[in-house]
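Two quick folds needed for the group meeting slides. Do the first one here.
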Amino acid sequence: MTVDVFTNRVFGGNPLAVVLDAEGLTAAQMQAIAAEFNYSETTFVLPPHAPDHSAHVRIFTPRTEVPFAGHPNVGTAVVLAGEIGSSGQSLPERLVFEEAAGLVPMSLLREAGEVVGAELAAPQPLAVGASVSTADAAECLSLAPRDIAIATHPPQVLSVGLPFLVAEVGSREALRRAKPILAAHERILPPAGTDSIFAYARGLAPGELHARMFAPLDGIVEDPATGSAGAATIALLAERDIERDSELTWRIEQGVDMGRPSVLLGRTLKGGGRVLSVHVAGHAVRVMQGVLHAP
């Protein structure tokens, strides 16, 4: 089944393919299927290792398997909720996915009794990795060094389960001009410990961000919605916030400049000066379903 994620309308958001009956497929077959769909990610649903968990979920980009990602979790949760409901079973309040990065709890979002979306809790605490220069970050984005904002943080690798180079740009206009340069990505990103760059600009309202994500090294020129990068970014921003105890809400708009508008709703819980948990939620809508003829 395919779904569009972080949107409430078909042909918006980030497309995802969910292979429901993946038991017996090899990793090579999963990778081939993901390349066939050529979406940012494809998920494969397997029986859980622990009986109190909902599923073991493997996530593949067109080129590689990843330990965690945002829109694959939201989309897979909505698809599985629909499958459970159509089978006549009682639907739990939340699902728990086993993934390479750890356990990912998923709270289901309902409207008029129907599951319309889900909220994930990141499987790992915020990890801060290498920093790069403003010149290198700007080159990855085809921007000038002056377009990179460093008042809150330098361009640096962040992860709550999947690493991204995260860079703040100074304006929405600069973000709109951004585009990836493959040679710069090849030179700068792998030595820093990632293959992707997530660029964001602050909006007018508190907690509002506009974002774009480029990963041509992973076969993804631009991603319409990147929950794992968004989660890491708001975790860092919450950590740098002056409040020691807070529950902050965030709204990330992504995909607008590529014609796939997406809305990611974030939530961070902070206590004693540290971020206790980070969550990302969104809607998902079904688009297609069918049968794979895999050898």
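Then this one, please, same format:
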Amino acid sequence: MTIEAKPRPSTASRPGMLIDWDVPVAVRDGNVLRADVFRPDQPGRYPVLMTHGPYAKGLSFQEGFPEMWQLLADQHPDALAGSTNELQVWETPDPEKWVPQGYVCLRVDSRGAGTSPGYLDIFSPQETRDFYDCIE
């Protein structure tokens, strides 16, 4: 499977939400991972829901996993209610549901996935260190 990377603006906004695309996150060995940040448009301190993984933070759930999306839509339509689902990505919180509740959603492409450079090595000590560095 190949997925064409689509150029995106560095920032965007939605009602009540500010979005920063591909924010650089430096990790201890000098590599730079890329994160998308979805946050309330009001100043303040907010709790963060962070994901770090290989599923390409910019690949919509519907496009990347169409069979699973259809299964979710058929069996749990309540999970899709209350959102346009445009920002919905596999195994991550939907910013359209969480940001209005006062959370920041932070999605980090793990090393070698999506827009983060490097070699993908799932469940490795390196990935664990990267996850720790992203939290810090």
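Slide caption for protein two: The first helix runs from residue 61 to 64.
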